[in-house]
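I would like you to sit down with the pair of lines that follows and say whether tokens and residues agree.
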Amino acid sequence: MSQVMDYIEMKIPAKPEYVGVIRLTLSGIASRMGFTYEEIEDIKIAVSEACTNAVHHAYPNDEGGEVIVGFGIYEDKLETMVSDSGKSFNFTQKKNELGPYTEASTVEQLAEGGLGLYLIETLMDEVSVANHSGVTVFMVKYLSGERENHDTTISTQETN
């Protein structure tokens, strides 16, 4: 398992106008890591969706809650965690608590998150969701070097 090179954590008020601050930060982190423009846009959409869900669903009565976003920056991937419990987390510990990804762990959230979770799962390489003392969405995006090689392998057949 690769070690975290750097870790960045942000806490924002659970208000829609602050989701853009997360997008800007994410954009800077992902471009510094070498993600392509398209990959950065995908990650921004997924993380924005997770943040927006947290803002809209976690604090329904303008309770003045907070959303925590953690970025685990590795050589080959970016791990992002969005939590609406408003409490800082030990990134590695929280990640381990989430356990392996299963579709069942996310389907339960669909009633609350609507299509957002399907969108997140489509755009990111790994997604898991935990629902203890608030909802935490954990997302991973790998740098594309390896994946692009798989995508460009085209089998050719000769016709006689």
